[in-house]
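Weekly structure sync, notes
Attendees: PL (lead), two postdocs, one rotation student
Agenda item 3: pending single-chain targets
PL asked that the sequence for the first pending target be pasted directly into the notes so everyone works from the same version. It is reproduced below exactly as submitted, 437 residues in total.
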Amino acid sequence: MNASVESELPQCFRLRQHFASLAVDNVRQSVDAAIGHSTLTSRLRPGQTVAIAVGSRGIADLPTIVSAVVDFIKRCGGVPVIVPAMGSHGGATAEGQAALLRSLGIEEAAMGCEIRSSLDTIVIGTSTAGLDVHFDKFASQMDHVVVLNRIKPHTRLVGRYESGLAKMLMIGLGKHQGAIVYHQAMADANYCLDAMAAEIVPMIQTAAPISLGLAIIEDAFDQVSHVEAVEPAEFLSAEPRLLAMARERMPRLPFDHVDLLIVDRMGKEISGTGMDTNVVGRKWNDKVAAADEFPKVKQIYVRDLSDKSAGNAAGIGVAEFCHRRLVEKIDYEKTRVNCLTSMHASAGAVPIHFDCDREALVAAMGQVGKRTREQLRWIWIRDTLHLSELVCSEAYWDEVACGEDRNAAALETLGKLEPLTFDNEGNLRSISAFPGA
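Predicted structure, written out during the meeting:
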């Protein structure tokens, strides 16, 4: 790439968003206090078994949270066992799901209890719409089941119940078969998760030993900011309130209109679609924001796939461009299973990919119909969970000075306008190395 072409790329500056930090003081103590105030302590008898349902999401401090639950149960005389609750993730295999837990730091030696991974289910009943209600066979045989999940807006679902306890109970503990049933049903726009949950969650709670939900909410800095024990009878009534809290605390991009969003990494521990569509503005359509949806991002370039995603690149189809190294990390079977099970086949479509960042950026520059580098509206982020510090192109400089931000976070420029720099292979240097860090 010659120097004249490279000089046409916009200059950039580092930007800080001043989100409110709402982290709890001590995660383990917060978990202990939450469970301690629940009725589980009065119902759990010495020697009784407790299945702890743990999903594949990258919840902040997940090993600490899970080990705190394990230790609490042991102190009460119970026998804890961890079970994966993740539908079709991990390639929809028992070993794949156990491996996913290990990648998140959930291992038997560290947790101090057995991990039992199986995709075997029992059918506990049939809904009025004719749906077989699947439930983890092993968990059904335990004395108690504790469901643990982060509450947050889902990447495709909209309603009172999105990503939370109800979804974990139905789809996570429904295993691969349950995930297929519910996602196929939700392909009918008139039969959403809200409608199913109202009937099926009580069915599961009647037939299976569901004893507690542990809801986790994170702040804009990917920190645990709220831990709440939810009694089984309150799953459906509590979750909408918790979802509203999670939505208020999640991070956002600072601007409504973006020509190119550069994303350092995507992954299943970051979001179900690798990149949170609530952040990139593509919840309804992989390639364009709805009329009333913000931000409106014209193009997305993804540079890498996280190691914890274990090759699952579900969501890569949301991007227009990606780096070849990401493509080389894709486990196509895991990605295929996840995308087909979730009825989102387009999420697995591999976009145009490049051997280096410089080639990708030059290509993207020519796709938006703007003639000068000063007009190009680019934002560069680490991932959709970490948005407190990012890099913006010069087109935003005056907007920051005028305070034209959308998400109510105060904005602060760090450093001055600088050219993007590349290594000898044409790849961007680390975002943390950009001036102003």
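Discussion points:
- The longest helix spans residues 193-207.
- The first strand starts at residue 12 and ends at 18.
Action: rotation student to compare against the earlier draft before next sync.
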